[in-house]
Write a structure and sequence with these properties.
The protein has seven helices and two strands; from the N terminus they run H-H-H-E-H-H-E-H-H. With about 210 residues, the chain is an all-alpha fold. Strands 1-2 form a two-stranded parallel sheet. The longest helix has about 35 residues, at about 1-35.
């Protein structure tokens, strides 16, 4: 329980470190939507920040490498045990946690964009999981193909929960059905870049200064 609380607090503080950047990015996104005539509910502004907070927490919990890790542990990319390519033949507690970790994201993405269906959810989750796993080659963690599979399953479960309970909720949605948009994947990419280049290194620097 204590590690969960610790990582939860750490996630909030990391989000706070880059919150001004996130607010600027959201202002630019909303301005772009207005120019393109894309309507969005009043809850979209809050929902998008919740998405960035959730992604920051996911990066924190999974041990996503920041730029400081790349500079310190970059040679681990060549480690023989850096990648585990064996598919597990039974479920473990860690695998179940990997499923649960991606369920909230599977709910939130279609809640924010009305053109975000199951296929988009699966692709978004897979690409995000791939980013996390690849980043872990540069720090003390190892990459595991089982994590990719479990994370993708979590996205599917999240989409199922959205269909059951939230598919009529439009107050948080951007109406992008008639637009060719990669807003969800772009938002994930922006959050990842901000974490790698800002949140993680700044948080590490602050901790080192305090201790």
């Amino acid at each position: 329980m204590m590690p969960v609380l610790f990582h939860g607090l750490e996630s909030l503080l990391q989000y706070a470190v880059v919150c001004p950047v996130f607010l600027l990015l959201e202002w630019l996104l909303c301005r772009l939507y207005r120019r393109q005539g894309i309507a969005y509910g009043k809850g979209f502004v809050i929902g998008w920040q919740m998405l960035l907070l959730l992604l920051t927490a996911m990066f924190c919990f999974t041990g996503t490498a920041g730029v400081e890790d790349v500079l310190r542990f970059g040679t681990s990319l060549l480690a023989e045990d850096g990648i585990c390519a064996t598919v597990a033949d039974h479920l473990t507690a860690e695998m179940l946690l990997n499923v649960l970790l991606f369920v909230p994201l599977g709910v939130l993405l279609p809640l924010l964009w009305n053109n975000h269906g199951l296929l988009q959810n699966v692709i978004s989750g897979f690409l995000l999981s791939m980013l996390i796993e690849c980043s872990q080659l540069f720090n003390y963690r190892s990459s595991d193909i089982n994590d990719l599979l479990m994370n993708t399953i979590g996205m599917c479960l999240g989409y199922g929960i959205f269909l059951l309970f939230f598919h009529r909720t439009e107050v948080c949605q951007a109406q992008t059905a008639d637009k060719l948009t990669l807003a969800a994947m772009g938002s994930i990419g922006l959050a990842f870049v901000c974490y790698v280049l800002l949140a993680s290194p700044l948080w590490t620097w602050l901790v080192m200064r305090l201790y």
